[in-house]
Amino acid sequence: MRGCASTQRSLGTVELALPASALADSAVARWARDCGVTVGVRTSRELGIALAADIAPIRMTVHAGGLNADELLFCTVNLGVGRIVVDSLDQIEQLASAKGRRQRVLVAVTRRGTGVGFGFDTHEATDAYSAVLSCPRLDLVGLYSEVGPDEHHFVSHPAAIGDMLAEMTQIRRDHGVVLTRIGLGGHGFTFGDGVGGLADVATSVDETLDDACATLRFPRPVVTVLAEPANRMPLAS
Fold first, then answer.
1. Where is the Orn/DAP/Arg decarboxylase 2 N-terminal domain (predicted)?
2. Which of 10, 107, 150, 173 has its Cβ near the most Cβ atoms within 10 Å?
């Protein structure tokens, strides 16, 4: 629990999202509830862990790719989760067909030009932006990218941030909408073995944002980093 708190402080203006798997530790779950920390949910199992830990749904960012259609509708209609990351047009159609409150959405994008793997490449993403923006029930608030060694992932978080900001600038030009959030996850974002690694990430993110936003004349978005526990094990207090 102390490690989580230290990690969050080290990130400064960058927002930490805990993976729901970390909530298996009761102390971490209590800290996340008390501090209103964002929780990332990637699978059905993780959704169950987050609910069992009594995390407020509004604090959950749910990755639609790890859920089936019924679970996805449950998240948006019954729970009212804070944000949903979509990586297919089918998921957008499912959300658009649901009844109830407006749902905030992030579109997952992959490295430019690959067209394979997680999410949309930056050409297919154009259709995804239009599909979300044309639906009265959906609210496009940002973009999400994975960083890692796979060919369809971005090789570094500066590359991902730069590409996403360029996409957000194009969305503003095409649709007159200013997106306010960037999500990052994947390889290299860990907590629990000291705070140096993510503190360095936060510094690099700040510098990249300052440069890219100044160059593109784009307002600075909120950046959320979905970090994994060191060694993929729950933290102890």
1. 4-229
2. 107
Domain count of the fold of the chain: 1
Task: Report if residue 237 sits inside a domain.
Answer: no
Digit-coded pLDDT (tens) for 24-73: 989 889 988 988 889 999 999 999 999 999 999 999 999 999 999 999 99
Residues 6+ apart with CB under 8 A from 217: none
pTM summary value: 0.88
Helix, strand or coil, per DSSP, at residue 84: strand
- Helix and strand counts by DSSP (H, E) for the chain: 8, 8
Q: Which of 123, 96, 19 is nearest to 62 (CA)?
A: 19
Tokens at 107, concatenated: 């579109």
CB within 8 A of 202, min separation 6: which ones? 10, 11, 12, 13, 14, 225
Token code pair at residue 48: 């169950």
